[in-house]
Design brief:
147 residues, mainly beta, Pnp Oxidase, Chain A, nine-stranded antiparallel beta sheet, globular
C-alpha cells in the first residue's frame, strides 16, 4: 500500500513583514507580498562562431511589492516613512520577510519605498501596492537552503 501523502498547513498570519523594524499588517486578500530578483543569475554572450560564454551576475537586489488593504494602518506608516525619505534622503531601512510556517527568510539591510501606491476608491475596500527596491540581500533562505 502506498504511504499517505504529507499534509501541511499554511497560515498567512505567520508571514511577518517589517520595514525599519516596524511590523506591516493589514494585508490584502490574494497575493500580499511578491519578491522578484532584479537580474538573472547569469548573462550569456554568443560569438559569431556560436561559442557561448556566460558571466555570473552578482546582483542580489530585489523589487518587493507589498499589497495592503486601503484600511490598513500600515499605509499611514509607510506614507510617513516615504515622505521623510523624500524630504531628507535618509529613508533606507532594513526590510525583512519571515515565513514562520517554515524556513523561508528574506532580509535586506537597505530598502526604500520607490513611489506612492496607486490610489482608488470603490464600493468595497481596495488595495494599495507599495513597491520597494533593495540593496544586496543579507540572507535569503527558502526551505532551509541559503540562496
Amino acid at each position: 500500500m502506498p504511504a499517505n501523502p504529507l499534509v501541511t498547513t499554511y497560515d498567512p498570519k505567520k508571514v511577518v513583514i517589517t520595514f525599519g523594524g516596524t511590523p506591516i499588517s493589514g494585508y490584502a486578500d490574494g497575493t500580499f507580498v511578491d519578491v522578484s530578483p532584479s537580474s538573472d543569475f547569469f548573462s550569456k554572450k554568443v560569438g559569431a562562431d556560436g561559442e557561448v560564454a556566460r558571466a555570473m551576475n552578482n546582483d542580489n537586489t530585489h523589487r518587493v511589492q507589498i499589497t495592503l488593504q486601503q484600511s490598513s494602518l500600515s499605509n499611514a506608516v509607510l506614507g510617513a516613512l516615504k515622505a521623510a525619505d523624500k524630504a531628507t534622503g535618509l529613508g533606507m531601512a532594513p526590510l525583512t520577510i519571515t515565513d514562520l510556517n517554515g524556513t523561508t527568510l528574506f532580509s535586506w539591510p537597505q530598502a526604500w519605498i520607490v513611489a506612492d501606491p496607486a490610489w482608488g476608491y470603490a464600493k468595497e475596500n481596495t488595495d494599495r501596492v507599495w513597491a520597494f527596491d533593495t540593496g544586496q540581500a543579507a540572507v535569503i533562505t527558502e526551505g532551509g537552503t541559503i540562496l
